[in-house]
Amino acid sequence: DAGVIQSPRHEVTEMGQEVTLRCKPISGHDYLFWYRQTMMRGLELLIYFNNNVPIDDSGMPEDRFSAKMPNASFSTLKIQPSEPRDSAVYFCASSLRGGRGDTQYFGPGTRLTVL
Amino acid sequence: QKEVEQDPGPLSVPEGAIVSLNCTYSNSAFQYFMWYRQYSRKGPELLMYTYSSGNKEDGRFTAQVDKSSKYISLFIRDSQPSDSATYLCARVTGNQFYFGTGTSLTVIP
């Protein structure tokens, strides 16, 4: 298996622009997670899906952030409009069941820079 | 107060040393703990997880939980240059993952 695939790997944009990050989870995994990582705050869970349904979006920082999972093999995280403080590495992860002890497999991340 | 506190380091040790990485947590709710390793410009990967107090060993790695002190540790024996990475501790309760900010480790040959 190719693992979790994220695109783009790097994104540089200007403040106010829309940014869309993409993720393809491991086939057969029922859970998908979006994280944001910064030096100051570490790794933060933004939202997670179970069988394409958003379960908990309490980590989404503002209404500027939205996430969708139209099918089992694709998810997007959108920021509109983007701001410099959104600069971070965004990770997507997937797991088979999402429960106790279940391993989350992380993608390589998208490094976002908002100027 | 953050859910999980972790000393960011950086920590630098000679090859072969025993490494101790530590985290503290604040919530006593039923939970379990994980240690992730993250190489530079890569996603985190799971190293170990443990539910209860005591030690769990896997090769050169030992995870320790002290619930009375709310303290979790990862020990690396006979450290290798390939262990150079950032180590993240995580507390999991329900489906909520709370990560520490990570400790950067460099093992010098």
Explain this structure.
The complex is a heterodimer of chains A (115) and B (109). With 115 residues, chain A is mainly β. Chain A is built from no helices and 11 strands. Chain A has strands at 5-7, 10-13, 19-24, 31-38, 42-50, 53-56, 65-71, 74-79, 88-95, 105-106, 110-114. Chain B is globular, with a radius of gyration of 13 Å. Chain B contains no helices and 11 strands. Chain B starts with a strand and ends with a strand. Chains A and B meet through strand 5 and strand 10 of A and strand 5 and strand 10 of B.
The rounded Rg of chain A comes to: 13 Å
Radius of gyration over C-alpha positions of chain B, nearest whole angstrom: 13 Å
The proportion of residues in beta strands of chain A is over 45%
The helical percent of chain B reads under 10%
What number is the mean pLDDT of chain B?
A: 89
Give the largest interface pair and sizes.
A-B, 25 and 19 residues
Q: Which word captures the global form of chain A?
A: globular
The tally of beta strands of chain B, per DSSP, is: 11
Low-confidence spans of chain B: pLDDT under 50, at least 5 residues?
none
Q: Let me know the number of strands of chain A.
A: 11
The ordered string of helix (H) and strand (E) elements of chain A is EEEEEEEEEEE
Biggest sheet descriptor of chain B: 6 strands, mixed
Give the CA-based shape of chain B: globular
Low-confidence segments of chain A: none
What is the terminal separation of chain B in angstroms?
A: 38 Å
Task: Give the oligomer, counting copies of the same chain as homo and different chains as hetero.
Answer: heterodimer
